[in-house]
Amino acid sequence: MIHVVEKLGAKPIPLLISIVILILFIAPFFAGIVNLGNCFGTAAMTVLTLFFLFNGKATEFLHRLWERPVGKVLLCTVSAFLIVTVIASAAITCLIVKAANDYPETSGTTMVVLGCKVKNGRPSLMLKRRLNAAYDYLAENGDVTVIVSGGKGSDESISEAQCMYEYLTEKGISPDRIIIEDTSRSTYENLRNSKNIISEKGLNEKITIVTDGYHQLRAEMIADKLGMEAYNISAPTAYWLIPTYLVREWFGVAYQFVFG
Question: What is the pTM assigned to this prediction?
Fold first, then answer.
């Protein structure tokens, strides 16, 4: 095996790293998770893995391409695009990390829990983690009202909001503290509809958003657009899903920044 790798002119260490990252992008497919994050990540890491595997031939091809004027223009354009993309991705990642840790300074806010997949009437693992994070805060701050926000998907037996309500009440949170918002189908609708409820019921207009850490920045951007002051409580994300959802958020945040 080592002899074959050397014969191909491969770069062993970069090749191994790229294969590990590629596996992390492929793994979610087997859990039924298909989104822009793992589709793009799989494609990009496949190209990078092949480059490191056939490094000798790839380098030789690039040298020949560089010798042609059109090739120089093409390589310079691609290189500039990749540099800008890497810088932008790094900047967004830093902002995501910062937003994920924007914990509320006071309990005097209205909590909004963003919905996620419901399976057979029960919360998925990701939704359960969000609810557990919400429960911990609600248990410590008895004066906080919570809006559980999420509609019913075509493959869900009950709405995400109803599922969240049942889960929190089963854990001991008083039904009087929970408001169901079960019509939204996107993060924007989650927050817009929650804002309307807050206005109608005269609740504290400052909100604490409960969702996964990778999702907090985009949620906060949408809240800001709606004129809502938002803090965040982040639920933990399974480590093997972080690459997929982080890459998805790169696109989501970029789209929100340009078109939001």
Answer: 0.88
* Closest alpha carbon to 36 in 258, 260, 254, 257: 254
In a 10 Å sphere around its CB, with 0-12 CB exposed, 13-18 middle and 19+ buried, how is residue 211 labelled? buried
**Mean per-residue pLDDT, 85-105:** 94
Q: Where do runs of H (alpha helix) occur along 141-186?
A: 160-170
Residue 119 is encoded by which pair of tokens?
A: 């399976």
Instruction: Give the pairing type, strands 178-181 and 110-114.
Output: unpaired
* Exposed/middle/buried for residue 227 (C-beta within 10 Å: 0-12, 13-18, 19+): exposed
**Token pair recorded at residue 11:** 């770069």
Residue whose entry in the numeric block shows the structure tokens 């057979």: 120
DSSP state of 155: T
Point out which residues pair with 123 in neighbouring strands.
118
Query: pLDDT, tens digit, for every residue of 195-212?
Result: 999 999 999 999 999 999
Instruction: Give residue-wise pLDDT tens across range 23-64.
Output: 999 999 999 999 999 999 999 999 999 999 888 888 899 999
d(CA 59, CA 52): 10
Name the token pair of 98. Answer: 């910062």
